[in-house]
Amino acid sequence: ERYESKSLGLYAVFSRNYRNPTGQSGVHFGLNRSFEDDDDGSLTGFVGSDLEFGGKLALLGEYHFAFNDDDGQALGKGRGYLNVGIRWIVSDRLAIEFDLKDVLENNARVKRSREVRVLFVRG
Questions:
Q1: What percent of the chain has pLDDT over 90?
Q2: What does 84-115 look like in DSSP terms, one character per residue?
Q3: CB distance 95 to 88 below 8 Å
Q4: Which residues contact 24 (CB under 8 A, 6 or more apart)?
Q5: DSSP-based three-state secondary structure for 18
Q6: 14-68: per-residue pLDDT in tens?
Q7: How far is the C-alpha of 58 from the C-alpha of 85, rounded, in Å?
Q8: Model-level pTM?
Q9: What does 22-66 look like in DSSP terms, one character per residue?
Q10: 52-72 burial, b if ≥16 CB within 10 A, otherwise e?
Q11: Please, which residues bridge with residue 47 across strands?
């Protein structure tokens, strides 16, 4: 009847990047309202951060509160979704990322997932 994860729908994001001794870092905050047709259309939010080391490695983390997935046809257990990752920056245009999704095992149907992503930036 629905997708494993709700879409963000309408959202606003506030981000700030910083230079630090190890490279770049950023903090990100957002609010969203999904328009998925179920009993729980609450306003919810998310936070994230990234920390770069020497321009070659970055640690990533994000937490989605998922207040809109804990009632009605919810797949969530009310813990929210914690995702973490590590990115190897191979060159200015290529990076490889290893991610763990739903570390807190919030989703009642699917256990945490592991993903490998290849990021290519065309200049």
A1: 54
A2: EEEEEE-SSSEEEEEEEE-TT--BSSS--EEE
A3: yes
A4: 17, 18, 50, 52
A5: strand
A6: 999 999 898 899 999 999 998 876 666 678 999 999 999 998 999 999 999 988 7
A7: 8
A8: 0.84
A9: TEEEEEEEEEEE---SSS----EEEEEEEEEETTTEEEEEEEE--
A10: beeeeebebebbbbbebbbee
A11: 29, 63
Q: Which of these, 38, 67, 50, 69, lies nearest to 119 by C-alpha position? A: 50
The pair of structure tokens assigned to 87 is 């990115």
In this structure, the chain runs to a length of: 123
Q: What is the CA radius of gyration of the chain?
A: 16
* 70 closest CA partner among 32, 35, 44, 47: 44
| Residue 55 contacts residue 23 (beta carbons within 8 Å) | yes
Pairing label, strands 57-64, 23-33: unpaired
Show the tokens assigned to 117.
């992503």
